[in-house]
Amino acid sequence: MKAVPQPSQQYLAASNVTALRFDIKLPLLVILDLNGCLVVRKGAGIEPRENVKQFLHYLLHEHWVMVWSSAMSSNVQRILNTLLTKEEQAKLVAVWDRSHFDLTKEQYDSKIQLYKELSRVWESDYIQAKHPYAAIHPWAYWNFYNTVLIDDTHEKAKSEPFNHLHIPQLLPLKEVSLQPGTTVLGQVAEYLDALRHSGNVANSIKNEPFKLNDHYNLDWKASGGIETENVEAGNENMEDRPPNED
User: Which UniProt keyword terms apply here (predicted)?
Assistant: First the structure.
């Protein structure tokens, strides 16, 4: 069992700093969960969330995107191959899997609660080098002011709760009740579109967390979205996975 991480005093203090709103679009690092968030795995197949292709197209064109899943590397890659082309995968800032949780072998093979501590992301020189202004300004780096974790479980965001955009878990053949003409990912995209004008993401999410069926719903065509493509269930063997993959 891993110890439950807690927010640092520095983090809590920063989340209380009033967010300034800017007219310009600021860089935003979006960290994506996979299973239960963008897709749900059904045996050997994958069922995508509605508009997942458009959502990913929007993210890759408008933000900086990385994937962090508690699944094993092979299964993460299978899901990515279903959702993204090789060219699109090359645009990802990073792809982290179960091996990026600092687990012992016993923990890796066991069903335990995992925590996505964003400080680990921010401590990565490789990821920091992907900030668009890193080579120009010494103050340009990813932190709690400009990072969003999209995940369907609150527990995984214990250490940085105000950088967490919580969405309902995707279940097989079942989606949450929505306002007519909207989708979960459309609403998330519109929230992100507003959030990238914030000078302090942690403060903005703390004061106005994402709520389904609020006033957010992105116009896909206006934002450069693409037509929905069917995601066919693959035939790959999905048995090589630990019991607590997300």
Answer: Mitochondrion, Protein transport, Transit peptide, Translocation, Transport
